[in-house]
Here is the input.
Amino acid sequence: MAGEPFVHLVKKNVQPTWKTACVYVGAVLAALIVCSIVIYTVTGLDPLYVYRIMWESTFGSASIAMEFRLITIWNTIRDTMILLCVALALTPAFKMKFWNVGGEGQILIGGLATAAVMRYLDTSVPTWVLFAAMIAASMLAGLIWGLLPALFKARWNTNETLFTLMMNYIAMQIVSAFSIIWEAKKGSGAIGVINKVTKAGHMTTKWLSGVFGGENYIINVMIVLVLTVFIFIYMRYTKHGYEINVVGESENTARYAGINVKRVIIRTMMISGALCGLAGFILVSGSSHTISTTTAGGRGFTAIIVAWLSKFNPFIMLVISFMLVFLDYGAKGVASACGLNKAFSDIITGILLFFILGCEFFINYRLVFRSRKEVN
Amino acid sequence: MQKEQPCENAIELRSITKRFGNKVVANKKISMTVKKGEILALLGENGSGKTTLMNMLAGIYYPDEGEILINGKEVFISEPKDAYANGIGMIHQHFKLVDIFTAAENIVLGIPGKQKLNLKEVASDVKKLAERYGFQVDPNKKIYNMSVSEKQTVEILKVLYRGANILILDEPTAVLTPQETDKLFDVMRNMKRDGKAIIIITHKLHEVLEISDRVAVLRKGEYIGDIKTSDATEASLTEMMVGRKVDLDIDRQEPRDEKLRLRIEHVTAYDKTGEKKTLDDISFDVYSGEILGIAGIAGSGQKELLEAVAGLQRVSAGSIRYYPPENGKEEELIGKSPRQIRDMGVALSFVPEDRLGMGLVGSMGMTGNMMVRSYRAGKGLFTRRRQPKQLSEQIIKELEVVTPGVNTPVRRLSGGNVQKVLVGREIANSPTVLMTAYAVRGLDINTSYTIYSLLNREKESGAAVVYVGEDLDVLLSLADRILVLCGGQISGIVDARSTNKEEVGLLMTKYRKEGAAIGG
Here is the structure.
């Protein structure tokens, strides 16, 4: 006969936020310890040294001039903001349980539209017209990329996961094609910096360099923070946000409530796609000034993790985005400083994510161990 | 150690305690026994811990404290497999069968055995088993072709086939017609004669009195006591269950000031495949100031009929006309969405069968759920939460909803409280037509009677109430007229005051041969 089980699970009640926060902090600490063990046993490096490298790769080394240190810090901020922007863009779709895994394609196509406007308008129009056109084009392109799967879903109930995924490849192929059409040097297959000489369409912040440092991305930050507040309000306090929540929870309830489910799906995916397109604009105009198939860099997928880990709270997304960027920079820094390859940094990122995702379990359940019982 | 001797207790529970979280004690030091060859009825209101207790026997939960003795020996049941090993079989309210498999295939599913499966042998074993206890079943029939009662038979055979000596039936009669219930009770008596111990959970007191030998009562997680069925009455059992005397009479007034409210003519609808008629030429009228009961075996078209009126079901033919109380100017409802119907000023309220899947949003609090009806109120882009919040507080107070707060997700509330939230919202906008589907399903006596009196109140204030129900005793004493559905057709409309259970029960199966796949 089976004996009393050694341990069994008990579901927890809601617990105070500080306790949840403690679990997360504990998970990160535990992950760091496990990483230390892995680092030491596999590479023989001093874990503390490795962590210092990670820190310095994200925030710059204290031993170098502030001017250079700022560059590193701004890079971290720039990437955090881009990731946050995509996560915010995906939030309405995922809240509606519309599995938009097409963020990658929507970003790319938005970036491509931005690049096209930059190239063809160049200095022929006033700067503000150029930027307005770039933003409009990027959002429109992303919107179309989001709208197509939504239309098919609403009309024929096609599977949106496959559809959005395939749209990624289409976007990538189109960008590949334009990489040849617009290539800077024949045969290079790369576009290079667009409007290299005129700098038309480059989001520049040099005039603020006195305040924020030479190579700053303050406009990117402003755009994304405004978007953060917008999504927070949109999802929580508007009628649209309410409809998205109901549709995501149960389409039957939505129909019962008199919500036009198809319209909500289409409208929401237009917004989601357009905001992904805007992320493409920020990437092209606000940082790389060029476009290639790797411009999106997997952010369309990483942002899904950000959105879900934050339980769709835009302000927590900021923290999670930063954490993922920190891990990425840190791991890459370690890899180059210690002569390890990229696989090593992936291992560290993997261990940390494992612990953070795993602590969800401890937030919802607790373990009850076998109590000692007298045997008579 | 106990001496080896035949023990007459099939089950003995010794101070079983089960907690959920730190605060909720679902079962508190429960000690009880079930003898071999005994039918024990387990009674208790919702949230009294009956299902939790039974789930510990079935291996779904594990007790925090206490001991379980089977045939006098202590056992540990940490998963369903252990329950089977100890001869315990539970028949859940929701059947756990594979639709595309036959009865025999479902019965052997999951039983470890030889590499090669001899289905013929299984089928003949099942047949023998069925004959022994008086079941009627075809082992080679596919589940999707079966009626609810046949499916239940398969569930019971499944546990018997695995050698269960202790059977737990969770509300087995909720989905059966009176005739089917009688058959089930015959089978239960046969099993009892065979020495099996049976625990039956049910809310229907007359069934308790009819079938059981002994009644055990739980209240708020505690064991109140047991009583021999021959010494019990409906009133005494209710008092044990609730802890005080409850008035079990439904105060039915004569309909007053009846006016035509809805005229439904020749309504026909098809299921998703477009082949089977779910509604077949349905015509009837609904009047204000009356309760129209709708009876029928589950899946006879009740859901489709109510949803057709609410604008949620596509109708291929017929008309549904609404006559407003103000001017009597008729309005066609077919082809209109729920929103259009509301915008026309039709005060139509609907308590759907699937409370959390259609009527409410489980992850939202009460305030958010009040907004299902009213979120469009006011101009502009933003929702207004003040009024829904006030309405929530009012419902909490008037219907005694137990909830930590207006923002606690309604999914976390107990079944009775969920239903109070839904019904409360639906009657809040003083409907002219109020439709309810299985409004008291799974609710305890106290809450059920609260719902009945709310419905009566709506009727007296002039609403046309449509009540789809499954408990015929309630239908007979609550409704003014009873419409009986069978296989998507109306098999009769009878006066609730002069008809009886047998007549309604027969009407429920009247057109059986045409709708052979009803409930399948």
Observations:
- The first strand of chain A starts at residue 7 and ends at 11.
- Chain A touches chain B at residues 1-5, 8, 10-13, 237-243, 245-246, 249-250, 252-253, 255-260, 368, 376 (CB under 8 Å).
- Confidence is low (pLDDT under 50) at residues 372-376 of chain A.
